[in-house]
Amino acid sequence: MSRNDVHIIKKNISYHDEAAADYNSVMDSHRPNQLIRQRVKEKFCSLVPCGKILDFGGGTGLDLGWLTDAGYEVVFCEPSVGMRNQAIEYEKMILKSGRINFLEGERNDFSTWEQMPPLAGQVDGILSDFGPLNYIPDIKKLFECLAGVIRPGGYFLLLVLHLPFAKRLKWHRRNAIVSLLFRNTFRMYIPYKGHRQMVFVHTEKEITKAAAPWFRHGGTELLIRQDFTLIHLIRNETTD
Questions:
Q1: pLDDT truncated to tens, each residue of the chain (240 aa)?
Q2: What's residue 224's pLDDT?
Q3: What CA–CA distance (Å, rounded) separates 86 from 148?
Q4: Distance of CA 204 to CAs 1, 30, 235, Å?
């Protein structure tokens, strides 16, 4: 990744460290989020009925309850220390499942996985819920790194933002117009207590193109009323 991409990711992590304390209450107070999470659960369980899975960008662990109830062995990846600590506490004090391997420190940095794999062996599926891909500028590099940790034929289910042009104009008029004219990825900015995260609204076409060397497109479900797209990819059978 470029130095600028690394800088953006670090700033986004700092944003999530700051927002971690309020994250669960914000998510739980919005009824559509609960409906989205239920749909993600149904879809993931239908694609990956059992085995070891990677919860990529797992945040405060809001998916861990249903993942462990379903019997999965979970590898939990979350680069924000504030978010990850809440997930660890959730497992320790409430879930007590014994089914979760929390990646520590730099092992949560996907860009290092080619040199230092985060786990022994490969997972059967990857879950990326509520838009971790939207905080990463170079998603082709991401797919390359994720391809090394999932078995051939394994499913990768990802939920990403979907914003039509009218909503993009409301968020950031200039960037919306530039994105339309030059076919660039739309960027918007969300402030919180002196921090600002940069959000990349990658289109389905951009995602499937970036993933194509390692993953094939398995299907897409557009959740229009909730401004999200649910995409599932399948790891290519041939190794790279």
A1: 788 988 999 999 999 999 999 899 888 877 789 999 999 999 999 999 999 999 999 999 999 999 999 999 999 999 999 999 999 999 999 999 999 999 999 999 999 998 999 999 999 999 999 999 999 999 999 999 999 999 999 999 999 999 989 999 988 999 999 998 988 899 999 888 888 899 999 999 999 999 999 999 999 999 867 799 999 999 998 755
A2: 64
A3: 28
A4: 22, 25, 17
Q: How far is CA 119 from each of CA 61, 78, 141, 226, rounded to the nearest angstrom?
A: 19, 14, 19, 34
Report the alpha-carbon distance of residue 153 to residue 133 in Å, rounded. 21
Q: How far apart are the first and last CA of the chain?
A: 20
Q: How far is the C-alpha of 197 from the C-alpha of 211, rounded, in Å?
A: 24
Note the pLDDT of residue 2.
Answer: 86
- For residue 76, the cross-strand partners are 55, 102
- 79, 14 Cβ separation under 8 angstroms: no
The domains of the chain are located at 3-235
Query: How far is the C-alpha of 202 from the C-alpha of 184, rounded, in Å?
Result: 9
User: Closest Cα partner for 103 from 118, 87, 88, 86?
Assistant: 118
For 159-183, letters b (16+ CB in 10 Å) and e give bbbbbeeeebeebbeebbeebeeee
Say how far apart CA 132 and CA 136 lie, in whole Å: 7
CATH 3.30.70.1450 fits 3-235, yes or no: no
Residue 225 φ then ψ, to 5°: -65, -20
Phi/psi region, residue 227 (left: phi>0; alpha: psi -120 to 50; beta: rest), is left
